[in-house]
Amino acid sequence: MKKHIILLLNAILFFSCSVTKHELNTFQTEKIDNLIENKYFEIKCDWAQPQVTGSFRQIQNSGLFPIGSSSSNINISNSNNYFRMKEGRVVANLPYYGEQRVGGVYTNNAVAVAFDDVPKNLKISKGKNGNYYIKFNIRSKHKSSEHYKVNIKLFNNLSSTIYISSSHRSSIEYDGHAKALVEAQASL
C-alpha cells in the first residue's frame, strides 16, 4: 500500500511539474516573440569573452581585470553597457577587451564597441527550439573605416550571446539578458 501511495504522489508531482514547465515555456516564448516582432528591446551584458591570445593572457595577472575575472571571461556587469534595437536602428556601447589588428589610433572615449545606425543585411530567424538568431553588419560609431559583423542568439529564457567580429580588432563575445525597452529609458 505504501508503494502505491508513493508511486501515486510521484506521478502527481511529475505531472504538476510538467504542466508548470509547459506554461512557463509558453509565457517565455510569447515574451521573446513579442520582443523580436516589435524589434524594441535591450540587452544588458554581464560578461565579455575576448579572443585570448598569448599577449592578452600575459596581462591577466596585472590587476587590470575586475575581481573574479580572467583573460577569457571578464565581468562587465558594473559597466554602463547596452545593446538596443529600436525602430529599425541598432545602438550599442560595449566595453572592448582584445587586440587591435589594423593600424590606427583609438582615443580613450572610442575604445568601446559602439555603433548607432541602421543595420545592413539584417536577418532574423527562429530556431526549432524557440531561440532567435539575429545577424547584421554595421559601421563603428567612432571610426568610419571600422565595420562589425554582429551575430546574436536570444534564448527562450531571454539570456543572450552577442558575437562581434571587427574589421580592425580581434573578435569578442558578450553574455547578457534581454528585456523590453521602457520608453523613458529608450532614448537613442
Structure explained in plain terms:
The chain contains two helices and ten strands. With 188 residues, it is an alpha+beta fold. It has one domain: Lipocalin (Beta Barrel), CATH 2.40.128.410. The longest helix is centred in the first third of the chain and has 37 residues. The radius of gyration is 21 Å and the shape is globular. 20% of the residues are buried.
What's this entry about, in short?
With 188 residues, the protein is α+β, with helices and mostly antiparallel strands. The protein is 22% helix and 37% strand.
- The tally of beta strands, per DSSP, is 10
Overall mean pLDDT:
81
Spans of at least 5 consecutive residues whose pLDDT stays below 50 are 18-24
Helix content: 10-25%
Query: DSSP helix count?
Result: 2
- CATH C-level name: Mainly Beta
Fold-level CATH name: Lipocalin
The total domain count is: 1
